[in-house]
Design a protein that fits this description.
By secondary structure, the protein is an all-alpha fold. It has a single domain, classed as Up-down Bundle (Growth Hormone, Chain: A). Helices cover 80% and strands 0% of the residues. The protein is built from 17 helices and no strands. The longest helix is centred in the C-terminal third of the chain and has 52 residues. The radius of gyration is 20 Å and the shape is globular. The mean pLDDT is 79. Resistance to tetracycline by an active tetracycline efflux. This is an energy-dependent process that decreases the accumulation of the antibiotic in whole cells. This protein functions as a metal-tetracycline/H(+) antiporter. Its main location: membrane. It is a multi-pass membrane protein.
Length: 405
C-alpha cells in the first residue's frame, strides 16, 4: 500500500475506533434507561426498545444510499465530517433527554448520522487495491472490535455512576474525533472518478438495483441481508436477556461486551489476512456462518454465565463474514459505484433493522411472559441460528468455489 493510502487508512481506522467507542459506551445503559422510563418492567421495556431499534434502522435504510450517492458525487470527506459532528451533538441531546419521546428523537438522529459508516467503507475501497480489500476490511472490523472492548466496559463503569454519564462522554468523544478529522482527513475520491448525483441512485429502492447487476452479487447480498437480520438479536435483546436470565448489572454486561470485542479484534486483525491467503474468501464466509450458528445456539441454551462466556470465542469467527462479503462484492462493481454499493449494503442493514429489532424483542417478551406456552428466553438466538443455516445453503448453491481469490 502506498504511503498516502496508508495514511488515509490509519485515519479512517482511528475514526472508526472513536466512533464505535462512543457507540459502545451507551450500549450497556440505553436499554436500562428505557427500562427506567417504563417503570422497571422488563417485558414492556423490551417491546419499546424494539421500536427504538426499528426507528434507528429505518433511518439507516433511508439515508445510507443517499449519503453514499452524495459521496460518489462530492467526495467522501464532507459526508464523513458532517455525520461525525451530527453524531456528537446527538449524544449530547440524548444525555439531556427529559422524557422517553426525546430519547426516541435522539435515536432517530443517531440513525441518520451513523449512516456515514457506509461512506467510510467506500473510502477504504477507494484507497485499497482489490486483492487486498478483504484483509483491509478485516482491519476495519478490528477497529470495531477495539471500540467495543473499551466502549462497553467504560459504559458499564460510567453507567454505575450515573445512567446519563456515558452519553456525555460519547458526545464529547465524537466531537473531538470530528474536529480531528476536519484538519487531517484527505479526500479519497478524485474529481475524474466522481459521477453525477442521481435520485435514482440515492433512494433506497434505486440503490438496491445495483445488487441485481450480477447474479453472484445478488446471492452475496442475500447472505449479507440474512446476517444483518440475525445480528440484530444482539443489540436488541442482549442487555435485557442477560439481565433477566443471569441478573447481570451494567458493569458485568459491559465487561462481557469488552470480552466479545477482544475476541473480535484477534479474529479480524490477526486471522482474517491469514485466512484469506490460506482458504480464500468463500471458505472464510462458510466458516463464519457455521461459527455464527454455533454461537447463537450456545447463547440461547447457556444455563449460566460460564456457558455463555464459553460461546464468545466460537462466535468471534463471525468476524470473517464482513471482510469476506466485502472482498467478494467490491470486486464486482466499478470504482465509481463503490459508494453506491456501500450505501446499498447499509440500506439492506436498514431494511433488516426496520423489523428485526421488533421481531426479536417481541419474541423475547413473549417467551418470558406468563402467556407463553413455553418459557424459552433464548428463543431469539435460535431464530438467528436458523438465518445462518440458510446463508450457508446459499453459499453452497450459488457461489462457485472458482470465484474465490
Amino acid at each position: 500500500m502506498a504511503e498516502p493510502r496508508r495514511a488515509a487508512f490509519v485515519f479512517i481506522f482511528i475514526t472508526l475506533i472513536l466512533d464505535v467507542l462512543a457507540l459502545g459506551i451507551i450500549i450497556p445503559v440505553l436499554p436500562k434507561l428505557v427500562e427506567e422510563f417504563m417503570g422497571g418492567n422488563t417485558a414492556n421495556a423490551a417491546q419499546i426498545y424494539g421500536v427504538f431499534g426499528m426507528a434507528w434502522a429505518l433511518m439507516q435504510f433511508l439515508f445510507s444510499p443517499f449519503l453514499g450517492a452524495l459521496s460518489d458525487r462530492f467526495g467522501r470527506r464532507p459526508i464523513i465530517l458532517i455525520s461525525c459532528f451530527g453524531l456528537g451533538f446527538d449524544y449530547l441531546l440524548m444525555a439531556l433527554a427529559p422524557t422517553l419521546a426525546w430519547l426516541f428523537i435522539g435515536r432517530v438522529i443517531s440513525g441518520i448520522t451513523a449512516a456515514s459508516f457506509s461512506t467510510a467503507g467506500a473510502y477504504i475501497a477507494d484507497v485499497t487495491l482489490p486483492e487486498k480489500r478483504a484483509a483491509t476490511f478485516g482491519m476495519m472490523g478490528a477497529a470495531w472490535g477495539i471500540g467495543f472492548i473499551v466502549g462497553p466496559a467504560m459504559g458499564g463503569v460510567l453507567g454505575d455512576i450515573d445512567s446519563r454519564l456515558p452519553f456525555w462522554v460519547a458526545g464529547i468523544l465524537a466531537l473531538i474525533n470530528a474536529a480531528y478529522g476536519f484538519f487531517v482527513l484527505p479526500e479519497s475520491l478524485p474529481e475524474e472518478k466522481r459521477c453525477q448525483f442521481s435520485w435514482r441512485r440515492a433512494n433506497p429502492v434505486g440503490s438496491l438495483k445495483l445488487l441485481r447487476s450480477h447474479p453472484e452479487l445478488a446471492s452475496l447480498a442475500s447472505i449479507s441481508f440474512l446476517q444483518h437480520i440475525a445480528h440484530y438479536v444482539l443489540p436488541s435483546t442482549f442487555v435485557l436477556y442477560v439481565g433477566y436470565r443471569y441478573g447481570w448489572n451494567a458493569k458485568v454486561t459491559g465487561l462481557t461486551l469488552a470480552a466479545v470485542g477482544i475476541c473480535n479484534v484477534i479474529v479480524q486483525a490477526v486471522l482474517v489476512k491469514k485466512a484469506v491467503a490460506l482458504i480464500g474468501e468463500r471458505k472464510m464466509l462458510m466458516v463464519a456462518l457455521v461459527a455464527g450458528c454455533a454461537g447463537y445456539v450456545i447463547y440461547g441454551l447457556a444455563p449460566g454465565p460460564l456457558w455463555f462466556w464459553a460461546g464468545i470465542p466460537i462466535f468471534a469467527f463471525m468476524g470473517f463474514i464482513g471482510p469476506a462479503l466485502q472482498g467478494l462484492m467490491t470486486r464486482r462493481v466499478s470504482a465509481s459505484e463503490q459508494g453506491q454499493l456501500q450505501g446499498a449494503n447499509s440500506c439492506m442493514m436498514g431494511i433488516a433493522g426496520t423489523f428485526s429489532p421488533l421481531l426479536f424483542t417481541q419474541i423475547f417478551a413473549w417467551f418470558i411472559s406468563e402467556a407463553a406456552f413455553l418459557h424459552l428466553p433464548g428463543a431469539p438466538f435460535f431464530l438467528a441460528a436458523v438465518m445462518m443455516v440458510i446463508g450457508l445453503i446459499i453459499v453452497l448453491k450459488a457461489i462457485p468455489p472458482v470465484q474465490g481469490p
